[in-house]
Amino acid sequence: MENFWDMRFKQDTYVYGTQPNAFFKEAIDRCKPTGKLLLPAEGEGRNATYAAKKGLNVYAFDTSIEGKNKAMKLAERNNVSINYEVGDFFNLELLNETFDAAALIFAHFSLDILQDYHKKVVELLKPNGLIIIEAFSKNHIEFQKVNPLAGGPKNIDMLFSKETIARDFPNFEILKLDEIEDTLKEGEFHNGKAKLIRFIGRKTV
């Protein structure tokens, strides 16, 4: 049986577009991380491709084979290579690696695994490693009511706040942590005003 993300990604169109997430691009361009980058829940590869073009050694994964197929095509069209695995995070080969940076871009998970997921990402980061997060805020629910195409989970427990970021990433120097309102223009499913959490942190231990 196809999972939700296979069904979403199997169409020819890149449903979140082919350009990198604007905040991710800004963070990569400003902070200039080098070395190995971890990209969980990478979907169709827009951020992985951009990072590879900037010279990073990209390790991406998702639960969707359709997402991987499109990501590999996008990387090939841009003359870059990326490492991309499909499967459950806690059973992947990349768990044997360590990373200089990680980015969680709209990586929303159910409450029963979210903290373990974040803990594992932290474990895989080297000391002084950089984390970049953009996610829908708990206050985004009000925007969804007005515009369903704004995107994001409908379950408030899967949405973020500055407090949940501080809870899950305690041993990080906070370079940026904001809740902001912005207008998303990312393909078919992230389109319109949104309430977002944006976080950049550096691992201190």
Query: What percentage of residues falls in helices of 4 or more residues?
Result: 25-40%
The best one-word shape is globular
Number of DSSP E strands = 7
Instruction: Encode the helix/strand succession as letters.
Output: HHEHEHEEHEHHEE
Strands of the widest sheet, in order across it, are 3-2-1-4-5-7-6
CATH third-level topology: Rossmann fold
Give the percentage of residues in beta strands.
Answer: 25-35%
Please identify the top-level CATH class: Alpha Beta
Q: Structurally, how many domains make up the residues?
A: 1
Question: Which runs of at least 5 residues are low in confidence (pLDDT < 50)?
Answer: none
| CATH homology superfamily | Vaccinia Virus protein VP39
Which structural class do the helices and strands define? alpha/beta
Number of helices: 7
Give a structural overview.
The chain has 205 residues and is an alpha/beta fold. It has one domain (4-203): Vaccinia Virus protein VP39 (Rossmann fold, 3-Layer(aba) Sandwich). Helix content is 31%, strand content 30%. It is built from seven helices and seven strands, in the order ααβαβαββαβααββ. It has helices spanning 4-9, 22-31, 46-53, 65-77, 111-124, 141-146, 162-168; strands spanning 36-39, 57-62, 83-86, 99-105, 125-136, 172-186, 190-203. A hairpin with a 3-residue loop joins β6 (172-186) and β7 (190-203). It starts with a helix and ends with a strand. The mean pLDDT is 95.
Secondary structure elements and their pairing?
Blueprint: H1 4-9, H2 22-31, E1 36-39, H3 46-53, E2 57-62, H4 65-77, E3 83-86, E4 99-105, H5 111-124, E5 125-136, H6 141-146, H7 162-168, E6 172-186, E7 190-203
Parallel strand pairs: 1-2, 1-4, 2-3, 4-5
Antiparallel strand pairs: 5-7, 6-7
